[in-house]
Specification:
Layout (H helix, E strand, L loop, with lengths): L1 H8 L13 E6 L2 E6 H10 L15 H8 L6 H13 L4 H10 L5 H12 L7 H7 L4 E5 H28 L24 E9 L4 E9 L7 E5 L10 H9 L3 E5 L6 H5 L20 H22 L12 E6 L1 H9 L4 E2 L1 H8 L8 H7 L8 E2 L6 E7 L19 E6 L7 H11 L4 E7 L31 H15 L6 H5 L4 H7 L5 E5 L4 H4 L17 H28 L2 H6 L19 H5 L5
Parallel strand pairs: 1-3, 6-7, 6-8, 8-11, 11-12, 12-13
Antiparallel strand pairs: 1-2, 4-5, 5-7, 9-10, 13-14
Helix pairs in contact: 2-3, 6-7, 8-20, 9-16, 11-12
Length: 611
Amino acid sequence: MTVGIIGVMGGVLGGPRVEAAEAVRLRLGGLAKTVHVADLETFASTGELPAGLRIYRPFLNDKVRATLQNELAIDPAVGQVILDEILHTPGGAPLLTTIQTLVPNLTPEDLQQALALVSQTEANPTLIAVLKQIPQQTLEVDVGAWVAWASQFHLAQQESRLLGQILRREMAAPLEEAWPPNHVNPFSTGSAQVERWEMSLQDRSRNRSIPVDIYWSRSTQGPLVVMSHGFGADRRFLAYLAEHLASHGLTVVAVEHPGSNVTALLSLPEADQSTSPSGSRVLPATEFLDRPRDITYVLDRLERLNRYSYSLRGRLNTNQVTFIGHSLGGYTGLALAGAPLDLRLLDQACDQVDPVHLSPSDWFQCAALDLPVQYANLRDPRIRQLILANPLTGLLFGETGLSQVKTPTLMLAGTLDSVTPMAAQQLGPYHQLAGPKYLITALGASHLSVGDPENLNPNLQAIPFMPALPDASTGNLRLFLKGISLSFILQRTDQAAAYAGFLSPSYAEAFSTPELELGINQTLPPQILAWPGLQRPTTPQAHRLGYGSSLLRLQSMLWQDQLHRIQRRMTTHRRPAALTSLAPFSQPWPMSAQYPPAPSTPAQISGEQPE
């Protein structure tokens, strides 16, 4: 997490150097121990422990050494804006408080100066390099505060892990499920030849230039698919999914939001300043209104293209739209599907943000408070389906706004998502949705796991709080998402019956790996519905469930479930033989039994290897 803090602050301009840190004083209550930076540098480069560090041998493992050696992704433009946010906006105040609690004698100006000097060197900076440039001869570190802070992050990860285990057990695939009728295969590439057109649509009423990519084929039919990227990404974030859907005859339009894409973020220092002294420049409040309006404007323009374009005439079914959104794009889709923006609860919550539990989603949603309105209805009735990956929800829709979404929804949640944590941002909101819905749980997936590795903008790595970009270990997730998205979209067509069977746990099981397990279901397990952590506070005085009691409650659920399973197995073994022999006839005959069994591996299903 030290690297994370330094990365958030990275790349800012500073004043002249006064002195450099030569030592770090570790303080725990009334005890203090001084560690020389030179000794840490020796340990990082050689792995050997100088005499001054031998007392810490149990703690200085390979992971600590790697942290000291890791290069820091410092982007001067982004870092300057982030530091401004922390110093001058209410949303940054909790993070600033946390830093000053952990390192009492480190001021923002000290860090600003150190990072400025480090960023001017040709070599890629490391944590050791930053420490050596801190303009304090001895840097004070409150070890107790660090342990408490790190423990909270560890407990948050444990909470997501236990939630994932409970969901996974409820979503275990029955062995008798089989391949759906007609032998269609949504996981393999379709037969249509895909063309991609690029254009820029000018909304002069809002002074917005909106880039779009249109993926289409000569055999286009069915619903129109519209994609919306997350904060700091671009319209190519889900390019692999757009190509796949278009190869099966769907027209896909990927929209880029100019106020919250990576280009806008990197150009902020040269951009006009916010009119409000407390307004966020990283994520302008107006984006919470402009993003849904971008989609509505694009659909209006596509309607005209559908009537008058020689090539696209009849290929843009704007009356039946499936919306696919990632992260902030998930918020965009929910607002379009009927959840009104309602900031009345958010106003109270942002005044009492707990810096220990702070996640980027908290910071992002609090940026909306600079809007001149507290309530807005942004619904567009042309949105008929939603596919949401790692959506940002929080308190943006008030206490009951999400219950107004009756649109069929497919939602994906990752248990290692540190940007939009699963419990607060997906599970609770999913339960509120009033329409038909499916939940994909990806155990081991992070916030960017669904992104296209071949098309992700490299500047995305410079954005603070963002985890590592996806790699080959998440290839099965993207392969699964292609097939499950197609099957879900086609539920609004005459091909619904042929693809409905793929929306089952069997195929999630087939695409699971030891590193990344997948599950799909339509309802949350009763244990999670009864979990107090699922209920979001609605007033500042509402009780907030601590991580400790939350983990005990979740672990207790797992133990009870294990006990019940053991009891059921014992009852089954003791059942009289006559009753056991009748058991198969007590269940309806499976309609899918006439079809061939489902393939057991993704390669067999898709005919291709994951990326």
